[in-house]
Amino acid sequence: MAKVKKTPRPKAETPKGFRDYFGAEVTGRADMLRKIAGVYHRYGFDALESSAVETVEALGKFLPDVDRPNEGVFAWQEEDDGKWLALRYDLTAPLARVYAQHRNDLPTPYRRYAMGPVWRNEKPGPGRFRQFYQCDADTVGTASPAADAEICAMLADCLEEVGIPRGDYIVRINNRKVLNGVLETMGVSDEGQAADVLRTIDKFDKVGEAGVRELLGKGRLDASGAYIDGVGLNDAQAEPVIAFLTSKGAGNTETLANLRGAVGESAIGVEGVDELEQIAALLEAQGYGPDRIVIDPSVVRGLGYYTGPVFEAELTFEITDEKGRPRQFGSVAGGGRYDDLVKRFTGQAVPATGVSIGVDRLLAALHAKGRVESEAHGPVVVTVMDRERMAEYQAMVGELRREGIRAEVYLGNPKNFGNQLKYADKRQSPVAVIEGAEEKERGVVQIKDLILGAQIAQNATLEEWKDRPSQYEVPRDQMVAKIRDILSEHGLSEAL
Amino acid sequence: MAKVKKTPRPKAETPKGFRDYFGAEVTGRADMLRKIAGVYHRYGFDALESSAVETVEALGKFLPDVDRPNEGVFAWQEEDDGKWLALRYDLTAPLARVYAQHRNDLPTPYRRYAMGPVWRNEKPGPGRFRQFYQCDADTVGTASPAADAEICAMLADCLEEVGIPRGDYIVRINNRKVLNGVLETMGVSDEGQAADVLRTIDKFDKVGEAGVRELLGKGRLDASGAYIDGVGLNDAQAEPVIAFLTSKGAGNTETLANLRGAVGESAIGVEGVDELEQIAALLEAQGYGPDRIVIDPSVVRGLGYYTGPVFEAELTFEITDEKGRPRQFGSVAGGGRYDDLVKRFTGQAVPATGVSIGVDRLLAALHAKGRVESEAHGPVVVTVMDRERMAEYQAMVGELRREGIRAEVYLGNPKNFGNQLKYADKRQSPVAVIEGAEEKERGVVQIKDLILGAQIAQNATLEEWKDRPSQYEVPRDQMVAKIRDILSEHGLSEAL
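^ inputs. structure came back:
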């Protein structure tokens, strides 16, 4: 007989570059987002949730590549009108669209925060996913440096709120206008050459001062042996860039003086230094000294993208990387001023400034420092000894839940009691409750402290084992109280 | 001179069927989700967040239509391997994929909750959007009716937790197996005819008992004058369906007796009635009486989709619709048992049961009943009277925030003071603070109670106006205390 060809079973797998998040991974992130939202809210920022889907036209950035409108984004064409739609790749492009669309109803300035997933159609790599969370706050409609200062102060507050203590982070501020002033002083007016200088500055972190000098001049042999062509400036021309990058002094006052030297007579440069001075003064007056927020001209990330002040938050403590080497944790948030946000839509320039916190990196940092509960505990498990008395077991978890204690009845096949305890183990339950026919008759329940049980099984000598029982028999009406005691002994909050 | 043709400006608009959510719309939903998650968690359910994007293959439902894999979903093709990806259309299909993929690492039974947006590629209509929230809880891996009972109890708890008081909601339970038993008794074994009967039953809500009788028989002239063909059963054959649909008695005991009559000797039917009996007994033992959760065979929604018990939560209070007519609010949640969830992937049947709460409908219900703060207040606004003293104004909001009071400095152009008050008005600020040079010299600040001011402006006579000033002068060091007083007078929590 011929076999009927069946449709093959679908594969149970996420698409490449996507992943699932379980239990504490989800609630840990939700907690962090809630704390950050609380700070944003207290600063007067309003929540905004735009849709995940935008027209490719509104997202904009990818339009030049007309043949492949889905370059970098996930995009598809509407069936009825042929319009291209796409998943948002960040939260800033949608903000521009929202502000342009609703500007008559929104207050000016408009302070808004947004948090949620964004999508990038990129080649996934280890630890690099095509869906990840962003958590942004932006102020649209004011050019005042007070808005930039406020964003920086709020960023520092957010880091402390989620558990990064003062001293373990630093917010660094730089200004694109200062760099523009430096370029002006150098006599670099050609846009191509200016872009070359920017690209070189971006390598400062990697190649250092000497490397930047070479790259601004004739060029440089890189580590791989390849020769990198230089920008072709002479030494004197290159000097102001070096002065700019290395102008960080012992304090903001000294740094600002050095920057004034670097920009010389350039009007835009002087404006940039003035802005930094105002920001630093506002922050210091509110108690955000340079131990938390500092002017640092070596911050180059984002200088190409932003139009004014740029900010970056770094965690300064060391962690051990996967090869066991100590390294600084690095950047967890960045932002700055970008003034052409809304212009694409309305033709009118609207000044804006904002910050984006990398929630997943920040969570990773807290995990690395052991500052979040990595060992998540499951619920109290009430075992089923007698299938007919399911209602009574349900009543037990009801009592526990009413007292705020997370609890559940075992709902698998109760025949094999070992399986029930294995289940409690897999759930990382702190406590199991047992009430068989014999206990029922005597009006008691057995309460197993599973955390202590595991500790004893691992470490205890026979003597200790005898001295420290991990199972207690208590009258039925003392069940909740005893479980509460056990949980608090282990430092577990009732809600687990 | 020839004009250079410019690219037209992009339109600032959401794609058709999508919308933006602002301020209290976002935080109100987040609060509700947090409360529901709290109940789910207390019941031992674990959070799961799967990616928004799945392979079309894994989503499954749409596969038969091979030529247009994006029927009903938003789908696109990967560039490198040609695979079709799509946005999830619910949270159940991803759960099936996750369970099949991770089943060796997950506990059995696996209780999980999930909340987030889902997407439907459908024609949008008024109030119908192509992105909306779902909030699900499911138990995978147990066939026990105790799992169904638990879901129903949890659903009732969730409704009360978000502010629907007892008496304003009812959870109704029915069972697909009972209907299957009825069909067996009727001698309907042909699948096509069974499907016809199911479709007819689905119209019970609309056409009532008499209508269903006609539709099961020869057919029926509908309201529009069109003749609807009937299923073609004779009166005797149709009787058990009618008995099933109308078997609701004064209490669960009577209903169950009626159902036993309707299913006769059918084994599957008896099994279904037994399950309902167990569920009712478990719930009543825990105090969930028929005033909250009741067996109701007239619940027909979902009977075609689910394989065992089905649940539906309805709000029973009346609201006024857009035409001013009173109507019942209706369904806000539904669910049931579906046992073929994971089989598509693994070939093994895995029993599962769950519920989905329609968060947006539930929010609408709370709004309709005035049970959520519809008038959201903005932050306290500190006005800027003297641009040079920005740092001092920033210090004021700093003090307020440290006391948990939401506050901001006006960051627009401060020249026109009227604009500052207009801004505070647009922000729905409860309080504005004013400190000009003269106040500064005398060590005081002016505090405007904007809520009282608006009330007076609307209602007060001249006498009252004189008696009830809405602006106070207080010493600078009493600013926070005075603002706290004003907020509490208006019943506003400090966090606003």
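The domain at 27-52+88-188+233-368 of chain B is CATH 3.30.930.10 (BirA Bifunctional Protein; domain 2). Chain B has two domains: 27-52+88-188+233-368, 380-489.
thumbs up if we can close this ticket
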